[in-house]
Amino acid sequence: MTVDTAATGVPTDAGPDNDIAIRLDGLTKRFPGTPRPAVTGLDLVIPTGELVALVGPSGCGKTTTLKMINRLIEPTEGTVWVGGTDVRSVPAHELRRGIGYVIQQAGLFPHRKVADNIATVPRLLGWDKARIRARVDELADLLGLDRGLLGRYPSALSGGQQQRVGVARALAADPPVLLMDEPYSAVDPIVRARLQDELLHLQRAVRKTIVLVTHDIDEAIKLADRIVVLNVGGLLEQAGPPEELLRAPVNDFVADFMGDDRGIKRLSLLTVDDVALSDGPVVQSTATAGEARAVATAHAVDWVGVRNSDRLLGWAPVDDLPRDAATIEGVALKPFRSAVRGGTTLKATLDLIVTSQTRIAVVLDDDDVYRGALTIDDLAEGLT
Amino acid sequence: MTAALTAAEPFLRWDWVEDHTDDIRSAFTEHLQLTAIAVAVGFGLALAMALVAIRWRWTYGPLAGACGVLYSVPSLALFGLLVPVLGLGLVTAEVALIGYTLLILLRNIVAGLDGVEPAVREAADGMGYEGWRRLLRIDLPLAAPTILAGLRIATVTTVGLVTVTALVGEGGFGDLINDGLGRNFSTPIVVGTVLSVALAVALDVVFVVLERLISPWLRAGGGGAGRG
């Protein structure tokens, strides 16, 4: 099966150029003695500097695909291009020294101290001692590893620390491409979440092209710029940004794989900046009580927000308002506890909405200027 | 055999020991040499076989089987087979001694190399180690404790067997024992036996120390502050 590489958002006819880090052309792998291929005619383009997650059920060939990139597995048919070079045109060991590799349970060399583990590839490349030492220290700092750990053996480290060392080792020679095979599946959920956050932070600093294999769709959604969903036999079902796969899965397989809570998951990818804000039941402080009541009635709520020009002052129950003709100035106001600013995820916003008395989130900009309000209805509108 | 000794004769005559320090010293040297050659050559052969067995898995059964047969042949019978072909002397003694080391060494080398975690091997390949370099820098160092344990057993066993090779004229302390048996004289028997056992124990201790030195990472928390 041949899938249009436009699925990844990159033109098919782009030759070897700087924007493409890895390119798979008609990649097929048949293992001897198995009836069907592990990977079947896979075409994929991975843009430079992106974190791409390969996901799918077991047997979908995601790990096989990853290992064909650094030739730990040789394809039966097809070509892998890394940085515009056919990977078969260089000796496998030289190719691998130029590609970072992180595996499950870190796979650290138990007989080598942490510093020596990190120095593995620079030593293979023949760097001088001073340069290696400086690089090891730099990576320890980058990965948040205490330098005191550098003289320890891996067995003295926690699982999370070992995984950080694994990443430091993979980055040691500053390769443009990093392959990660289920890197966080062996650590507990709390450490995993922290390592994932660290990877996002690290990626902002180093901007590598990262190919990540995971069976954990939430991990893929959290980390990836693009998700590639593979089906059994290495058939490409859909590739695109996480938000797109959640919003518009191309078929039932992708929809199932993304989970039956796709809407909720999208809430954590989208922010208040991605949806249209409503005015909310808010009036100027110069309004009359009658006008305020009318606004509350129009929004079907029993309270009204009060603003002074572009500042939000607070809110009052309709029952507290004076007679219709009087202005509302002087009414005792309660502060909004559900104020959010730009960049807040819709998931966090939803949480505030359902736990606030007013069932509304008010959105302020960085200067506390009132931008608008969000209700559950507004969120639902934003998701469709 | 002690029953055959005369009651008047003391078990150990120190004057004989004092008169024969040179003989005892050369017996010691010969014993150590016979052992060292046997274990060194045996290790070389076993390592070669182990590498073949690791590369082509199906060869392990036949190789281990052949070494097992060698190991199970009684030493006297083996000399009986070898002497007509190789004559009396060093070669015959060493062929027999080497033969007995092979099974233990082969099994421990293969077990040691098999014991290297697949994840570690995959990481090494993924980092860009060539096959031979991975073997030298990763696989063998990690297998070293198991391999040394094999060397230790093989060495101690060989020290004991060397006393038997006196029968083909190369025996180290075995020559002393042979001499005593021939003359119905207990002192060289005691000296040869005690020193042979002492040598075995000493070499055993050397290997225990070596095992510790070669695998600092196995002791929990190890490492300390130094960077290597």
Key words describing this protein structure:
heterodimer; A: about 375 residues; alpha/beta; Rossmann fold; six-stranded mixed β-sheet; 14 helices; elongated; B: about 230 residues; mainly alpha; MetI-like fold; about 0% strand
Low-confidence stretches of chain A: 1-16
Shape of chain B: elongated
CATH architecture of chain B: Orthogonal Bundle
Q: Would you identify the CATH H-level superfamily of the largest domain in chain A? A: P-loop containing nucleotide triphosphate hydrolases
Which two chains form the greatest contact, residue counts included?
A-B, 35 and 27 residues
Output mean pLDDT of chain B.
Answer: 87
Mean pLDDT of chain A equals 88
CATH topology of chain B: the name is MetI-like fold
> How many domains in all of chain A?
2
Question: What would a concise description of this structure say?
Answer:
The complex is a heterodimer of chains A (384) and B (228). Chain A has 384 residues and is of the alpha/beta class.
Layout: helices, strands, pairs:
The complex is a heterodimer of chains A (384) and B (228).
Chain A: E1 20-29, E2 39-47, E3 51-55, H1 62-69, E4 77-82, E5 85-86, H2 92-97, E6 99-103, H3 114-118, H4 120-124, H5 129-142, H6 159-171, E7 177-181, H7 189-206, E8 209-213, H8 217-223, E9 226-231, E10 235-240, H9 242-247, H10 252-258, H11 262-269, E11 282-284, H12 289-298, E12 303-308, E13 311-317, E14 339-341, H13 346-355, E15 361-364, E16 370-374, H14 376-383
Parallel strand pairs in A: 3-8, 3-9, 6-7, 7-8, 11-12, 14-15
Antiparallel strand pairs in A: 1-2, 1-4, 4-5, 9-10, 12-13, 15-16
Helix pairs in contact in A: 5-6, 11-13
Chain B: H1 14-19, H2 21-55, H3 60-72, H4 75-86, H5 90-114, H6 118-127, H7 131-162, H8 173-183, H9 186-214
Helix pairs in contact in B: 2-5, 2-7, 2-8, 2-9, 3-5, 4-5, 5-7, 6-7, 7-9, 8-9
